[in-house]
Structures are given as structure tokens and as C-alpha cells.
Fold each of these.
Amino acid sequence: MNILQTEIQFVPGVGPKRAEILNKEINLFTIGDLLRWYPYRYIDRSRIYYIHEIDNSMAYIQLKGKITAFELFGEGRNRRLVAHFTDGTGFVDLVWFQGVRFIEGKYKINQEYIVFGKPALFNSRWNIAHPDIDPFMNESDIPEGLMAMYNTTEKMKNHYLNSRAMQKIMENVFALIKEPLPETLSPDVSKEAQLIPFHDAVENIHFPKSASLLRAAEYRLKFEELFYIQLNIVRYAS
């Protein structure tokens, strides 16, 4: 069977329960559907900001610093865990409303981390809810290049299918692909329009190796979409 027709439940990190959510929430059923579910934007993960630089214009930020303390607030469904994070220029509260026990045991005080997320002001303090956190040992731990961001629904997020989780699932999909994805356009059309191969376009739309390859991928995929729209118009007009 063509790998593109493989049901998404067989992708590592998905499984039957998550597959059902992806089926119902965003109509993804196969690996082919997943690969055609394109990012809505890209974030430059090579930039590290200082906490004192944060302002309302920043959609996402990446920080490097240490957790100085944890605090637990509320009870039951209103319970939240707050980690006080600093880089020496100020403080940010890292906040979790779910998975509190897991977080408490995973991250350590006074160890350096790379934190990535969306900043928001609450009671005159910057906070980042459910941030992505990775250990920092040396400069090679700072991510390079552009990172894809995926639209997710509230139900997906409630089942830990946020943008970062979807990116990991995409990584697992490409690990399953052992040979180039089949071309969808004829060689003559691709050559005439100077298009990159379909496999390269799909790979770089999800994991851009450079800004120029991302542009080439976007051009290839947009060209293909318009090409088939025009073919349909000609077919129904004749």
C-alpha cells in the first residue's frame, strides 16, 4: 500500500485515541492528509530574547535562563503550577494548568533551560502558559532556523496535541518515509515552471532548511493547487 494511504493511527505518537481526535477536529485520516496539513506560520528559533525586551508586539519568544522556584496555587480544576524563571534581566512566570505532577518532577531549580512560548501580561507580570522547555548545556542546544507552527483546536490542546506535538508527529512521519514521495505533476510541467520536486516541497514546508527553500516549497505547492483548479475549469468548460 502507498504510504500516503496509511492511517494516521499507525504513526508513532498518534495511536487510536489521538487519531480519532484528528479525524473529528481537522479531518486528518491518512499520512497523505497529514502531509497536506500545512503550517500557518513560522518562527525563527535561532533568536534568544532577554526578558527585559518582552513587549506586547511579540507573538512568540525564546528565552534562556533558570527556574528559581515553583509555587502551587488553587485546588481541583483551578489548580495551577507556576515556575519563576529569570535570565538576570527580569522574571517571567511559567504556568501550567495541566500535568502538574509531571512538570514538578521534570524540571529542576537553578538548571539552565531554553523556554519557548507566547508571552502574556497577567497582574502586571509576564507569563508563558504551557511553554516548551529544553535543557541548555551549550550553544549547540539553541534551535536553528525556522520552526513550523500548526493551527490546533481547544480539544486537540486538551489532549496534548499542540503545535509542538504536531511538529513531533510530522518528524515521525518523515522517519517512516523510506523513499521520495511520488510526483504529482508531469516532468514537462515541473521543468517548464522550474518547480522543486514534490518530496522536497513537502519536506521544506514542514521543516524549512532555509528561507529560500521555504519560498520554493510554497511556490511549488501553490502552483500545483492552481494548476489543478485550472484543469477542472477547462474540463467543465469544454
Amino acid sequence: LRPWLDRVRWVAFTSPSTFRSFLDFLRSAYPPEEFLWWPYTRRIAVIGPVTAEALLRASWPVHAQAEYATQAALVEALVALWRAGE
């Protein structure tokens, strides 16, 4: 899965538990020194403030947050981030 993970440029999280599961997955896929830089070379969106807090507690950046905790609002936040050229 490393080749796929290396190509990922955008990630969206819909809950703290999906974020924690993804962290566990990344830790199994990368050695520690490579795992640490992974979130800083991607754009990351979250569905709401609870999920954002989980990422921030793990020292991960949050580039976009949905205005409302819905899938449609998360897509809108991703589109806005993409249009801003980030």
C-alpha cells in the first residue's frame, strides 16, 4: 500500500475514530521517521470541530473544516480548499 499512500494528496476525516484508525494504519505502513512528515505534505479536511480537535491534539494540520457536520458540507469545504489552490 505504500505506493498508493505516497500518491495521496488530500485526506478527509469524518470522525475522531476514523482518524485514529488511519493513524494506526499509517504507523503500520511507514517507519517512524517517515510517518512523522506524512500529514505535512497533504491537505486535510474534517467534518467538524470534534474531528478537528482530534487531529490538532495529534499535532496534525487541519486545512479545511466543514461548516456543518454533513458529508455535503465536507465536500464543499474540500472544493473551496481546492479552488483556493491549496
Amino acid sequence: DGWLEIHQGKPTRVRNYWREGNLGLLNAISRHPELLPPDFVTQLLEARVSLAPDYAGLAVKRHPVEVAALLADYRSLSETPEGYAEADWQLHHQLTILSANPVYTLILNGFATIYRLFGPLYFTDPANRAGSRAFYQALETAAQAHDPQAARAVTLAVMTASLEAWLKIQNTTTGGDS
């Protein structure tokens, strides 16, 4: 995964994986969440704020009927944190696939373990489930209208709100002021 740099006849060097790592490293470290820095989930959510609007917009642009059909099933989600976390993961995963850009899928797959571990904590708050329900409906409406710009806008707004909600959760669980 690129953790070590080995050259015959020279000392082995442990790479600065935060600066020299790649998607393989992201996948490897996500399998050990107990070793992650406290703000790692926040950093992933910050990246999602940048990426999700693009892959959602592309999915609606390229496959609006499929996106709308996928979201129609989201009208009757189980009201459990685990149910929402899994459904949300599946939605984002399918949006990356429907974007027709496999790089988004590879990136998202890199933090599947972390998403499934921390997602239920996020969805424990009924307000976060309600926000996601509204997002699913708005995204469905954008897909039905074949409006990728609306899909981008609603996704950006919700991903930003999710990041802010996570920061509140993190502050509550750690007692911090970040």
C-alpha cells in the first residue's frame, strides 16, 4: 500500500502516508478506525462536500430515470439509524456508479468501512434522518425534472449540513470545541 520505501542497499524508509499515500492507503487505514485521528471522519465529510454534488449532478444528467427510480424506494425507509446509514451508503454508492465516472466509486469505496461504522451514530439524531428524507425527496424531484444543477445544489446544501451536524456530534462525544 505504499507505507514503506525499500531500495536495495539503502535503509528502508517509512513514508509519510498522509502526504504520499493513495486510495489503497485510504482503504487500508479505514479497516482500523481505532487508529484514525479524531478528526478523520470530519475530513472525509469535507471531501464529500466537494465530491457528492458533482457525482449526484452527473448521475442526474446521465441517468435521471434510474436516479428517480432508486429514490422512489427511499420513501419508506426503516426509521432506524442503521437502516438510514445503510440506505444512505447505498444511495451514494449508486450515484457514483450512475455518474459514469468510476473514479468517484473508487474513492467512495475507500471509506465504506468508516461510513458504515460512523453512519449509525450520525443517524441516531431524528433531525438528521429528517434532513436526509428531505434530501432524498428533493434529489428525486431534480432527477424527475432531469435537472443536474438542482441535484448539485440540493446535494451541496445537504452535504454541508451533514458536516455541520457531524461537528456537533463530535463535540458532544469528545467534549471539544472544534
